[in-house]
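Lab intake sheet, docking and co-folding queue.

SAMPLE TYPE: protein with bound small molecule
LIGAND NAME: zinc ion
LIGAND FORMAT: SMILES
REQUESTED OUTPUT: full 3D complex as structure tokens
PRIORITY: normal
SUBMITTED BY: R.K., bench team

The fields below were copied directly from the construct record.
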Amino acid sequence: MCGRIVVNGRVWEGAGLCRWVDEVLMLPLQAVAERLGARRRWIAYPRHLEVEKDGKVMALEIGAANARLQSEEIPLDFPVYLDQGLIMVPVSLLGRFFGLSWTYVKDVDAAILSRAEPALADKRVVLDPGHGGDDPGVISGCLVESELTWDVAHRLSGLLILAGAVVTSTREEHETASPFQRVMVVEKAKPDVVISIHMNSFLCPAHNGLETYWYNSWPARHLAEYVHRGILEEIDMPDRGVRESAFCILRHSPAASILIKLGFVTGDSDRVILKDKWMRERAALGIFRGIRDFVEAFAGAM
Ligand SMILES: [Zn+2]
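RESULT FIELD (auto-filled):
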């Protein structure tokens, strides 16, 4: 399998895919080095090269069983190799050199690498996937709101945990949770941020688009704006705006809390997006960056 690459919350759009070789995940060095501003030079083309970042040096030899980090020899899970000009390197080595955690999201065939985000370290985030269990939310054809909200929250949870946040969910996958139970989870977790996820519905399929809600708090309004923008950078949905409304979960959360209506399950163009796993992963990436950038900007005020 050859798949997509995400580094620090952004999809790598340049050349190269990740690739499994003998159960080792290999990534093109270029994708990570360029995204992270590392320098790379051949010492003896096409065999020996060095990568430099913040004064640290990694020496690689094509085909060798080891690499050198500073003066330390590191055994490799699989030798570095060249593939059509791309230098394929085991993900574990990249993680170690660049200080990245990584995971592989199988259903969208994507390698996700993330630094430990200083702003997110130990920040508490409550995710509130709307509906669930006995309450499916809106059903339209094959789309069930409770399944979609869980899916996006689950993807988002993976991204947040990888970056160092502490994540709590108001429900499990097939659990029914009342508004009261959800508010209790929020009260107990004492979160910095609450993200509630729902979808919209309407009789007319021409209604499509993203709405993000906040209530009665400036931090929440800023969070809504960051997250709304993040999602629209990732998926092509009409912008229905950042709005204020007194949803139950927002009224009862002292933290910066927002409710996202991630498109219309009844909308002709939104349905195409919501049906697509990769688009849901990208929506989660947009929410992730919105949270991260908000916390970074307002860390002192939290
Ligand atoms: Zn809903």
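REVIEWER NOTE: The longest strand covers residues 256-264.
SIGN-OFF: pending second check by T.M.
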